Amino acid sequence: MILLKKAALIVIVFSSTVLQAQNTYKRWSDIIRKNDASWFASDEAKKIAENVLLYQRDIGGWPKNIPMQDELSASQKNKLLAEKKTAAETTTDNGATTQEMLFMSRMYAQVKDERYKDSFLKGLSYLLEAQYPNGGWPQFYPLKKGYYTHITYNDDSMTRILNVLKEISEETDFYSIKPSKEIVAKTKTAFDKGIDCILKTQYKQNGVLTGWCAQHDEVTLLPAKARAYELPSLSGKESAGIVMLLMSIEKPSPEIITAVKSAYAWFEKTKITNIKEEPILNDKGKTVDKRIITVQNGSPVWARFMELDTNEPFFSDRDGVKKKSLNDIGSERRNGYAWYTDDPLDVLKKYPAWAVKNGTKVSESDKKAVDYITVAQDGSGDFTKIQDAIYASPAFPYEKVTIYVKNGTYNEKVRIPEWNTNVILLGESKEKTIITFDDNFSKISLGRNSTFYTYTLLVEANDVTVSNLTIKNASGDRGQGIALSVTANRVKVVNCNLLGNQDTLYLSGQNAKQYFKDCYIEGTTDFIFGGATALFENCEIHSIKSSYITAASTPQGTEFGFVFKNCKLTADPSANAVYLGRPWRIYAKTVFLNCEIGKQIKLEGWENWSKPEAEKNAFYAEYNCSGEGFQPTKRVSWSHQLKKSEAEKYTAETILKDTIPNWYSK
């Protein structure tokens, strides 16, 4: 604590000098999670990275609550260099270490500076070294006397660590730095031990599993005390983070399933719907206090501290004396701590789908809030055909309807009509849950517009999510044949394979916004086409033969068309002359940002489809791409290479802006 106070004092004094802060960001956590990946290649980011490297101790961890973006004086830098060997105040509390590791990963993705990679790996080594033999983690390591030695779930410290280990042990692409196989194996072992610790610390109340405490004794595993007002108790907040982690595990063990089911029941039992936190304002409209008032049918909240034997909420000042109402404690603690939380709402929302996926029956009371339908070819579900499940879904439901499709190859033509809004079409696995049909232009033979009838899956309803599926047009290279056709707004497609040849993916709908994430999309000619505004993030776009990837028909006056961010453009070996796009209509818009572009892309990049007027009206652009196929100086003269200031507007928030804020992230 002395070190932190001194560091804070230095920052205050320093900021009053003539030296200027290097940026205007208020919070370090905001910088780490910036949407613009290319920013991490900027001089500004590199300057901050030098600070992050300085603050990292030789043991691998970082201290907490450090504004890494603040400029350092020469004397501060010398002091930090001297402190590197001390391991003083290294911790995972308040996001420390795990967030700096994420920053280094994002830096290394843009700038292959080996120091960033080494820093990340040192941080990972620190996390592995700090783990107790029983699987838990202390708040500080090396161990610091006091409550800091307890196994710490507080502020999601341990769940953050386990999420890091999960990504690395599963060898996902979340982190740009890939440790050795030996280290990956160690992270898998550490993760499993951590989950075992979680299961062992779940509190039994009169023989019934409930939730978790913010701290557990590192030896007895029982709920433990931290600061004077943080008494042994069941925690609504920390328990929510733990359950969300457990629910993210593929193929959970029976013990994990039991833990989640028990915690879900406890959350339902302990939710509070008759109170509301109300701010008290002064004459200038500034919040000066808060109080709890009684309401009817309020949005559910949970207490941060609940009695171990009765679940009754309690509150306390720094004297540690329990009070039954937040209004009964002093202003300092009442306003200086988050006593209520709505974090468990995420658990309640996601539990039914998780339960269905993991073979657990969902109670009738749960089904009143959210509908769940299971499709299984072996007869173990509600239906054997996907279309039958859609027919059985309610029209314009208030809540989401999940249609869970078990593994299998479903040879059917599927339509989600306009009235079946709020559908989640969820496959058991991307590779083994397959919807396939073989219609093509010639087979349909309904005139010049036959293409639009060739779909395997047609989404006409707004607010639909499709995930964990393969959608295939199996007609082969026989002309136009759509795999997925989307003609609706706020449609999200996540972790799917979209397979076809010509016209694989059709995107349309008046003022429609559509979002594709972590998908694999393949085809031949114009295999992503249409007039919708669509954002593709972290997708692989694969060309089967030399032709055109996109054929946008963006309406005149529309700000965005097709936007590809952090995508990878690949091809079959025989496809060596591929265009990024051509204009189906003359106001076409297509942009590639931070993408890895393979050598199959032709030097000129774009083609006008024998429409000279498109060269004046279409908007084709790239920004900060990489790979052999990224040849910005050799592109057609009427395309664009964006400036940084121009590229900054291409955020999900801007591209997909709609009447429902952030719909794509829900």
Automatic annotation (TrEMBL):
The text of the family note is: Belongs to the pectinesterase family.
Q: Which UniProt keywords apply?
A: Aspartyl esterase, Hydrolase, Lyase, Signal
Q: Which residues form the active site?
A: D526
Which pathway is it part of?
Glycan metabolism; pectin degradation; 2-dehydro-3-deoxy-D-gluconate from pectin: step 1/5
Query: What terms describe the molecular function in GO for this protein?
Result: pectate lyase activity
What InterPro entries does the record tag this protein with?
Pectate_lyase (IPR012669), Pectin_lyas_fold (IPR012334), Pectin_lyase_fold/virulence (IPR011050), Pectinesterase_Asp_AS (IPR033131), Pectinesterase_cat (IPR000070), Pectinesterase_Tyr_AS (IPR018040)
Q: Which domain of life is it from?
A: Bacteria
Give the signal sequence positions.
1-21
List the protein's name. Pectinesterase
Q: What positions does the domain Pectinesterase catalytic occupy? A: 373-657
Pfam families for the chain:
Pec_lyase (PF09492), Pectinesterase (PF01095)
Entries under NCBIfam families matching the protein: pec_lyase (TIGR02474)
Report which reactions are catalysed by this protein.
[(1->4)-alpha-D-galacturonosyl methyl ester](n) + n H2O = [(1->4)-alpha-D-galacturonosyl](n) + n methanol + n H(+)
Recorded source organism is Flavobacterium endoglycinae
Tell me which EC number(s) this protein carries: 3.1.1.11
